[in-house]
Amino acid sequence: MPEGHTIHRLSRDCADRLAGHPLDAASPQGKFTDGAALLDGAELTATEAHGKHLFLGFGPLGWVHVHLGLYGTFRFGAGTPPPPVGQVRLRLATRSDGLPEEALHYADLRGPTRCELLAEPEKQAIDDRLGPDPLRPASDPEAAWARVSRSRTSVAALLMDQKIVSGVGNVYRAEVLFRHGIDPYRPGRELQRSEWDAIWSDLVALMNEGVRRNRIDTVREEHTPEAMGRPPRVDDHGGEVYVYRRAGQPCLICGSPVSSAELAARNLFWCAGCQRR
């Protein structure tokens, strides 16, 4: 499932490519036909991301709420859009209206868990139930700390609870705990306030870098392939990481084999040598 940095990047890309001009809207797949008919000819006036939720604003028409889930994709193209390929839930395309070819853009949404047109109060209800997002400047980590510091639940599970912290997924969860030497099974109530502050600050920095580079990199400069003289990581998810999807491989710092287990139906990765209780 895409993590929060991907959704914030999509929000920025939608604004850069599609805002400011009337859009042709269609649902070639047919599952969003009524919504697309309402949007057809409207302008994209705002884009927002909150955790793993993308919101595309169309003024008085409301907001298109998109949650990609496990299989959703949002792909962009330039120029006159070709015939849609595959199950396109929503296509948004710049209406030509005399614009030069190089000014035309389109976006195809496929396979989302959610694609719905919401009124402002419905959007606000989603925002209200989500935890603070490290990528939203106004987010207050105090609300998350208040829940984490009282919980007997493991910190690894708490970081994945979108009602507590929104946008953090399996990769950032595993990597930020490794970077701070925290056993993923430690109960939230055993965290020190200084540890939580360090985790939050690190998430802000790592996830903003993820938006900028459009991929997740979490290793410090001294542990990059160039610095360590090791081969770069080869993985569909890209990026250099310490423990994520490295089960059984030696830890980059202590050499212990990276551990893996299932926690709350997701694979957890950590180093027992570096992350001790």
Describe this structure in words.
By secondary structure, the chain is α+β, with helices and mostly antiparallel strands. The protein is 29% helix and 19% strand. A four-stranded antiparallel β-sheet has the order 1-6-7-5. A hairpin with a 2-residue loop joins strand 9 and strand 10. The protein is globular. It starts with a helix and ends in a 7-residue tail after the last strand.
Structural class determined from secondary elements: alpha+beta
Placed side by side, the strands forming the largest sheet appear as 1-6-7-5
Rounded Rg? 21 Å
The tally of helices reads 8
The residue-averaged pLDDT reads 96
Low-confidence stretches: none
**Strand count:** 10
Please give the share of residues in helix. 25-40%
**In whole angstroms, how far apart are the ends?**
29 Å
Biggest sheet layout:
4 strands, antiparallel
Give a topology summary.
Blueprint: H1 4-18, E1 23-26, H2 33-39, E2 46-50, E3 53-57, E4 63-67, E5 73-78, E6 88-94, E7 105-110, E8 114-118, H3 120-129, H4 141-148, H5 155-160, H6 170-179, H7 193-213, H8 225-228, E9 259-263, E10 266-270
Antiparallel strand pairs: 1-6, 2-3, 3-4, 4-8, 5-7, 6-7, 9-10
What does this entry show, briefly?
This protein is α+β, with helices and mostly antiparallel strands and 277 residues long.
Describe this protein with a few key phrases.
277 residues, alpha+beta, four-stranded antiparallel beta sheet, 8 helices, 10 strands, 19% strand, globular
